[in-house]
Amino acid sequence: MARPIIRVRCERLEQEVRPLAPIISIRNLAKTYDGGFEALKGVSLDIEEGEILALLGPNGAGKTTLISAVCGLVTPSGGTVTVGGHDIQGEFRAARELIGLVPQEITIEPFEKVINTVTFSRGLFGKRRDDAHIERVLRALSLWDKRHSRNKELSGGMKRRVLIAKALSHEPRVLFLDEPTAGVDVTLRKDMWRLVRDLRDQGTTIILTTHYIEEAEEMADRIGVIDHGRLLLVEEKAQLLHQLGRKELRLELCEPLERVPESLAAYGLTLSGEGYHLTYAFDAHADHTGMTRLLADIARAGLDLRDLSTRQSSLEDVFLKLVRDGREEVA
């Protein structure tokens, strides 16, 4: 009689430790517009609940089309998307209720008051009136003191905050931010970053598109790079920099060179700064970086060094390399 009880307990334990399904699951998503332009080419992606995912890509890469397809604003040409287990086409209302969207364009009624704008958005999703929730959202966005102001009286940064308040009014589990800090000054941009992290800490899943490399590097847990409708890579930020990042050794010479000496050609050195600077790129994680041998060979070549320094490659370097390599593969 004891065996069935043990088996049942094991089954329950397996259920408890089984990983949760992603909040958003995208499979082979494609979008071809009239005229034959392919904006999305078989994009597949899982987004975990409670993470910040940054989508990086040049203009026209497909970032906004991807967001629009997930939010139900664009009808896909192929593939599937589920949000919280709900198919965006077969169960549109249930899926859309889980999503808050902050578009690039500032689309709010200029003569309406801030509090009415946000309250109205909550009603659009069939939610009961909740003044306490609206107040919490407005206070979190530093809009409470402006709640009775008309939207046209607000600065550009404040209008963008109203868009975020509208998106949060119905308590979504997922928040899409399409270029959230476009046209926003540096100080307000950092305030936005702080707000996004606070939302994530409260359990909201956030997907943002951005042109600002430092924005993704500052905030994201994972980073996706998209170009020409193809998702080139999705990776943990730290892992991405670890795998693809390089370091550079910059050598400042006492006397300028016209060209790199033949004895140093094997190092792939780059000459710049009117002949005063030599740059050596190396893998910081390799067992042997070659720097010791390089410095010895520089001394044997009779070159005197004034200074040297190292620089870790940034996310921007990695991003540019991925886009360049991706386009070379297509070509």
Automatic annotation (TrEMBL):
PROSITE patterns membership: ABC_TRANSPORTER_1, ABC_TRANSPORTER_2
Swiss-Prot/TrEMBL keywords: ATP-binding, Nucleotide-binding, Transport
Record bears the keyword Cytoplasm: no
Keyword Heme included in the entry's annotation: no
Domain ABC transporter, residue spans: 24-253
Pfam families for this protein: ABC_tran
InterPro entries for this protein: AAA+_ATPase (IPR003593), ABC_transporter-like_ATP-bd (IPR003439), ABC_transporter-like_CS (IPR017871), ABC_transporter_ATP-binding (IPR050763), P-loop_NTPase (IPR027417)
Molecular function GO labels: ATP binding; ATP hydrolysis activity
Protein name: ABC-2 type transport system ATP-binding protein
Species of origin: Tropicimonas isoalkanivorans
